[in-house]
Design goal:
Layout (H helix, E strand, L loop, with lengths): L1 E9 L3 E10 L15 H9 L4
Antiparallel strand pairs: 1-2
Length: 51
C-alpha cells in the first residue's frame, strides 16, 4: 500500500495543495487530468517518499 498525506507541491504556482490518497496493493489506478495539471509531478514526488 502507498499512502500519501497532505502533499503540497509548488513551483511557479501551486500544483497540489494538501492532497491525500491511498493506493492499495494489487489494484490498478489511472490518473487523468488536463495537460499541465501536475500528474507527472505528483508521481515523481510520490516515488521519492521514504518507505
Amino acid at each position: 500500500m502507498i499512502k500519501v498525506e497532505n502533499l503540497t507541491i509548488t513551483t511557479r504556482q501551486p500544483i497540489l495543495k494538501s492532497f491525500t490518497t491511498t493506493f492499495k496493493t494489487r489494484n490498478i489506478y489511472q490518473i487523468m487530468a488536463e495537460n499541465g495539471a501536475g500528474k507527472s509531478t505528483f508521481l515523481k514526488a510520490a516515488k521519492s517518499f521514504p518507505k
